[in-house]
Amino acid sequence: MFAHQPVLLNEVLAVLAVQPGEICVDATVGGGGHARRLAECAGSDGMLIGLDQDEMALAAAEEALTGAPCRVKLLRGNFRRLDLLLSLAEIPQVDVVLMDIGVSSHQLDEEERGFTYRTDAPLDMRMDRSLRRTAADLVRELSQEELTRIIREYGEERWAARIAEFIVKERQKGSITTTGQLVQIIKAAVPAGARREGPHPARRTFQALRIAVNEELDALSQGLDAALKVLRPGGRLAVITFHSLEDRIVKERFRDWARDCTCPKEWPVCQCGGKESKVELITRKPLLPSKEELAENPRARSAKLRAVRKR
Question: Where do the domains of the chain lie, and which CATH numbers do they carry?
Answer without folding.
Answer: 9-106+216-310 (3.40.50.150), 114-214 (1.10.150.170)
